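step=predict obj=Cytochrome C oxidase Cbb3 n=69
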Amino acid sequence: MTSLVWLVPMALGMGIVGLLAFLWSLHNGQYDDLDGAAERVLLDQKEDHPIIDSVGHRCSEEDVESRLS
């Protein structure tokens, strides 16, 4: 019975934290564009492909940044 004294307030506290996190995500627009990400997966865009050098190896981000600057 004494464990319920700790477990019930902890469960209520975790529920309140989860509710606040959900309300924060609603307020900040996390659910505004639900279909956009699903449709972007189907698009074939050039900038989505990995950058490959003349030998055929993938370039790291540092290589790309050094070539662009």
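step=describe
The chain has one domain: 2-68.
step=end
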